[in-house]
Amino acid sequence: MFLSNIPDRLSAGLNDKFQFMDKHMITKGQVRNYSINSIGPIINFLVAIITLPIYIKYVGNERYGVISIIWILLGYAGFLDLGLSRASENALAKATVYRSIERSSIIISTVAMNASLGIVGAFLIYVFASVFFGYFVATTPAMNDEIRASLPWVAAFFPLALVNGIVTGSLDSREKFFSANVISVFGAVIGQIVPAICAVYVTPKLDVVVPAAVIARAAGVVTGLLYVFFLERPIIRNSVKISTIKKLLSYGGWITVTSVVNPLLVSLDQFVIGSVVGIGTVTYYAVSVTLVTRLQIFATAMARTLFPRLSRAGSEEARELAEKAMILLSFGFALPCCAAILTIKHILNIWMGSDFSNSATLISQILLLGGWINGAAQIPFGVLQAQGRPDITAKFHAAELLPFAIVLWALASNFGLTGAAIAWSIRVTADACLMVWAAKFSRRSVMKLIIPAIFLISSFLLVRYFDPSIWVSAVVSVFMGILIACSALACNSTLRKNIPKLQRF
User: Fold this and answer.
1) Quick one: how far is CA 390 from the chain centroid?
2) Signed CA dihedral, 264, 370, 51, 37: sign only
3) What is the Cα Rg of the chain in Å?
4) Where are the extended beta strands (E) located within 243-320?
5) Which of 9, 129, 222, 250 lies 20 to 30 Å (CA to CA) from residue 408?
6) Which residues have a Cβ under 8 Å from the Cβ of 125 and sit 6 or more positions away?
7) 3-state SS string for 200-213
8) What's the per-residue H, E or C state across 94-155?
9) Are 11 and 29 a contacting pair, CB within 8 Å?
10) CB 484 within 8 Å of CB 495
């Protein structure tokens, strides 16, 4: 009841919620929504920073590498969602009459389909993971026993993992971002803290740590699902409609292609590293990838905030809004990326120790360059899907897979972890160019991205050739931040016009 009454009124603005924004104005509600969508992942990130060293200290590099691959497999099997979560969010965003039979049908149909598909996926995950760890990953017999004992728990969680996408999509479609983030933070935080406590005070074995993580995350999913049913009441249990499922699948079919290919594009590097370089080195790369991914919360927050509005807007209005959002994001996201590039060596040294820092610093810096480009690309990616063209993003991702695999294998074989990081950054740069072209963004808007790119490259060259101390790095980070902020104001008339409103907020 608390969640349904308080801050979501602030994050939605019911009276003009479905009116498209003035092309030159940033509304107070949009700023608030973006802030909410940023704060939630930041909390998750801070918890991860605290718990990650505990995991590595007590669980060890080998077990943590196994855990990373297990969660990657779980994420990859998400293609069995068949794009229904994204399709339901898009459909629900357009179904603006709350507590209607239409919304009830969409939600119940999607939950039923995803739960059924999740049961099939649970079996496939168990079989594939058993074969993969049994024949393709070199581990000790004792470790094999731990892996075999933990896999049934991972498989059992998969149906709930698919249903969780519907929970988020339903709340986001109403722009109830506060509720969505509270539920997400609850599940993620207990999913990190509970297994860490078990690793320290019970045992670091996988057959205890993995079940603890699964049970904790399952509690978060169930909580979210019950809240959605309460919010959308009355939920009509027999409102599953074949016609509704067909409509969702027609949109979700291409989302499925993306769901199949994208996890490979995201995680193929870690599989190749485990095979070519060694499973023990996956930890260095996985931690670096985790840091870059967590930093992308700012880009993800903007794309998530805009998606419901982009789904309801006309094509020209959506493109104009997306262009402005990409420019604003490219400058704003450059701030933390530059600071991270300049200080990551010292952060890793303090956080994980000098040996870890020496092995992971260059990897992290290269991934941060690619991460900035990948973050900016979330806007054209989002507008294409919101406007009913998920086929374009799917075709691009499918076309990227084979060239990426070849380049990744070649660079990782010759240059190890650094080569893998370079291959990933090349891939996301090519992907961003394709997305911007397909979204028909103007050349003038795209050219403005060169300015923050110059600051990022300058930061990278500075730390590589001069190796500044922690205090010099901090001072340079502040200086770079000021320059980026001034450049953003100079290049963005919308931002200049809205400075008084942002100051009042």
Assistant:
1) 18
2) negative
3) 22
4) none
5) 129
6) 73, 74, 77, 151, 154, 155, 158
7) HHCCCCHHHHHHHH
8) HCCCCCCHHHHHHHHHHHHHHHHHHHHHHHHHHHHHHHHHHHCCCCCHHHHHHHHHHHHHHH
9) yes
10) no
Q: Is the torsion defined by CA of 476, 494, 379, 450 positive or negative? A: negative
For residues 136-147, one letter each, b for 16 or more C-beta atoms within 10 angstroms of the residue's C-beta and e for the rest, the string is ebebeeebeebb
Helices (H) and strands (E) in the chain, counts: 21, 0
CA–CA separation, 213 and 162 (whole Å): 17
What single DSSP character describes residue 6?
S
Angstrom distances, CA of residue 125 to CA of 69, 76, 164, 197, 220 = 12, 10, 18, 27, 21
Q: How does pLDDT run along the chain (505 residues), one tens digit per residue?
A: 333 333 443 334 333 333 434 444 456 667 788 888 888 888 887 888 788 788 788 888 788 888 878 877 777 676 677 778 878 888 887 776 555 677 778 888 888 888 888 898 899 889 988 888 888 777 778 888 888 899 999 899 989 888 888 888 888 888 888 888 899 889 888 888 898 899 899 988 988 999 998 999 899 899 988 988 888 777 666 666 777 777 777 777 777 787 778 777 877 888 788 778 777 778 888 888 888 888 888 888 888 888 888 887 788 888 888 888 898 889 989 999 999 999 999 988 888 888 888 888 999 999 999 999 999 999 999 899 888 888 898 899 889 989 999 999 999 988 888 999 999 999 999 999 999 999 999 888 888 899 999 999 999 999 988 888 889 988 998 998 899 888 887 776 666 565 555 555 4
- What is the DSSP secondary structure assignment for residue 20, as one 8-state letter? P
Q: What are phi and psi of 436, to 5 degrees?
A: -65, -40
**Tokens matching residue 494:** 């919308």
b/e for 189-200, b at 16 or more Cβ within 10 A?
bbbbbbbbebbe
The length of the chain, given as a count of residues? 505
C-alpha span between 295 and 51 (Å, rounded): 17
Sign of the CA dihedral with 488 first, then 489, 493, and 499 last: positive
Element (H, E) at 11: helix 7-12
Long-range CB contacts for residues 200-203, cutoff 8 Å, separation at least 24: 200/54, 200/58
Q: Which residue has the tokens 């933390």?
A: 336
Which residue pairs, CB below 8 angstroms and at least 24 apart, start in 343-346? 343/470, 343/473, 343/474, 343/477, 344/291, 344/368, 345/463, 345/467, 345/473, 346/470, 346/473
pTM exceeds 0.70: yes
